[in-house]
Each structure stands twice: as C-alpha cells, then as structure tokens.
Amino acid sequence: MGDRRPSTQSTSTIDSRDSTSLQAISKVIGWTPPRLRDPEGSRVVTKAEAFCWILYGSSNAGAAMAYAANSITFSSLILSLSTYWVLYLASADYTTRFSTDGVDHRLFFMAFSVAIFFVDLNWTGDILANGDEKARRMHLTGIAICYLLNSVVFGRAAVWVTEGRNFAVFHTILNLSAAALYLVAAHSSDWTCKALCWCACALFFLRSYGLPNFQKIDKVTNRRNAKDYISRSQSMMIASLALLIKSISKSVGPGRLEGHMGSLLLMSLLLVFLVKTLMFDNHVEDTNWHAVRCVTTPWRPTIFLSCVPLAMAGVMMMASGCNKILQMELQTSDENADMQHWAADNLMQGLALMLVFMAAMRALHKRPPVSDKGAMTIWKVQIVGQLLVAAVAHRMHYENGVSALKRCVFLIFLLVLLNLADEAEEMLHYRTRLAAKAVKLHGSNDVLEKAMEKPSPGNEIRNREV
C-alpha cells in the first residue's frame, strides 16, 4: 500500500484559508493608516464599539429611572437623552467615511469605553446632578474627554487621508467645540450649565448635515450613509424598548407576584411587543420602513435623526407609567390615587409623544410611487391614523392606571392592524410584480425556442443541395 498524500486541490484550499485568516488577523493586530471606506463595503461594528453602545444604554436607564421616581422634569429627560444620543452619533460618524482596520482603532474604542464608564459612574440621571456640583463636574468632564478622543481620531484621519481631509477637519473642529462647551459647563452655574449643554447638543445639526461640499459624493456612498443612519436609530430605539421591559420587571420585587399581577405583567409585556411591531414593521422588499433615502437632499436624515431622542422620550414616559402602575397595584395608601393618576397620564402622554414623532419619521420615508394608488393611500392612512391616535391619547385622562394600560394596548393594537394592511398591500404588489416577471421570462423563452426551431437560410440551402 502506498502513502496517502493530500491532493493538490485540497492543499491549495487549505493554503487559501490560512492566507485569508492571516490577512484578517493582520487587519486586527497590525497598524494601518486611516483610509476611506470602500464604496461597496459594509459597515463593520467592532466588539469595542458594541461595548460602548452597551454603556450608552445603561446611562439612559439612569435617566429613565430618575424620571420614574419623579426626581427630574421632562425637559431634563429630553436633555439627558439628547446628550447621549448626540455623543453616540459623534462616536459613530468616523465609520461612515473611514475604514476601521488596525489595532489603533481598537485601542481608540477601548479608551472611549473607559471614558464612557467614567461618565456612567458619575451619572445621577440628571445633567445638573440634582445640585451635586462635584458629580456634575466629573460627569461633564467625562463627556468632554469622550469628545476629545473623537477629535483625536478625526485629526489622525485628517493627516493621513487627503481625499476626506475636509470632512475630518470639520468633525475635528466640531468635537473640540463640544468638548470646550462641556468643560465650561462643568464649572458654571445651573442655568448656564443647562444652556451650554443644549448648545453642545445643537452641534448635532451641523454634524449630520455637514458642509455643502460633503453632499457631493456618489450615490452608493450616500445610500450607504443612509443605512448607517438607520442602524444607529434602530440600535437606540431597541435599547429604549429594553429599558421599557427593565422598568416593568423592576416594578415587582422577587416573590411578590400574585394572581392579578400576572395578568398585568403579561399585558405590559404585550404592550412592549406591540410597540416593537409598530416601530419596526417589516416590509417584503424594504425591511426598514423608516429608511431615509438621502440621495437628493441632506436635510432628511438630519430631521429624521433629531426625532429619535424625542420618540425615545415617549417610550421612557411609557416605561415610567408602567412602572408606577404596577408598583401602585401592590400598595394601599392615601397617595395611591394621586400616583395612579400621574402614572396614567405619563403612560398616555408618552404614547402620544412617541406616535407624533414616529409619524414624522414615517413621513420622511420615501413616498410610494404616485402610480401605485393603493400603497399611497395606505401610507397616508398610516400617518393620519398615528396622529389621530396620538390626539386621542393626549386628550384622555384616567384616574385608574390599569384602565389606562388596557386602553393603551388597545390603541397600539389598532395601529398594528393598519400595519398589517400595509403588509398585505406590499405582499400583493410583490406577488404581482413576480408574476409579471415570470410571464415576461416565459414569453422570452418561447421566443427563443421558436427561433432555435426555425431553420436558418444557410441550412435551407444546404438541405436543398443534398
């Protein structure tokens, strides 16, 4: 018996796999200068970057719990959500234009996660830290450090990449400006601190809109940036839904689940599922209904992204309302009626706020073609329906939180039924188009078969000669 040796084909396959893995490892541990992203390349999320997003979510949880405890106002809740939302966008702007290869990029996000962790340690749920000047100073200083790290990574790209130098320099200046505003706010009075924090959040409009020459890019890059905007909004909205579930679970302590509380918890969980379906309904062709097609005007993604923290604030209000409703069901005190009324108002007002800005986000979506009257009609009905339900929720007042929770579930269920009508219309349109393609393909095959069966003039002459 002869020796069994691996074939040449299997050896080449193993060598190609080894070379591919070595190239991947070299991208991770090797130092590579900044470069532009490939036009067709997808955005790769590193583990360090994902870890930063987890820390963002924990900080937002502090704001939600502080609002549920009625220790901060609604304006403070909006400011807190906007602060973290804008910081999250600033840390993700780099990957919309530049590559993320190399160990230096990993080190940057590791340092960034440490800064976010430092910010979260000093976070009380309120930007003003409830009058605790030391906690406020350390918290705002940590945010300033995050912006300084962003300016460093953009400045590095400005030195190495000549094609995207204007973009990198512009974002370096924006991050340095935000860092300066937070450093000054950390050592200012309450009113000045709040005003400077709002000014730092307002830099978001410059960051997302950019300079006019930033819009002179190819359609592939523009469409890819739109997908990046969508993924950011989705990650933060999903985080807000997770906070809603967390608020529900925290409202009932261990061992305190009784008979009627089980049905209320299931109803609250059904509310979360319905909100999730309403926010992320899946179309047949376009899996993101709130897809911003910024191929002509850049103001669409800017307005779209500015709606995200406001919609999140509505979800946070619903979370605080659910939390208090479930807590009050376990208590019997004189303040129970007042707290039930406060929780019911929070639940319904949060629903109204969420629906208004979700309708705005849906209106920013690419409109259906005018020729497709069915899709256009359903698109308009969905927007009008959300606004009508928001108006009804805003006008309703309940003394009992449980009745408000039931009515909230019922209203969202009606909107989900509207989405199902949209799904049916989308499915019908998709099947009609597939059938038309099949008929067209079948017709072209018939023509091809007839052409092949038909004898050519050369063959006819040859047959006559024979």
Automatic annotation (TrEMBL):
<feature type="transmembrane region" description="Helical">
    <location>
        <begin position="167"/>
        <end position="184"/>
    </location>
</feature>
<feature type="transmembrane region" description="Helical">
    <location>
        <begin position="140"/>
        <end position="161"/>
    </location>
</feature>
<feature type="transmembrane region" description="Helical">
    <location>
        <begin position="64"/>
        <end position="87"/>
    </location>
</feature>
<protein>
    <recommendedName>
        <fullName>Transmembrane protein</fullName>
    </recommendedName>
</protein>
<feature type="transmembrane region" description="Helical">
    <location>
        <begin position="261"/>
        <end position="280"/>
    </location>
</feature>
<keyword id="KW-1133">Transmembrane helix</keyword>
<keyword id="KW-0812">Transmembrane</keyword>
<keyword id="KW-0472">Membrane</keyword>
<feature type="transmembrane region" description="Helical">
    <location>
        <begin position="107"/>
        <end position="128"/>
    </location>
</feature>
<feature type="transmembrane region" description="Helical">
    <location>
        <begin position="303"/>
        <end position="326"/>
    </location>
</feature>
<feature type="region of interest" description="Disordered">
    <location>
        <begin position="1"/>
        <end position="20"/>
    </location>
</feature>
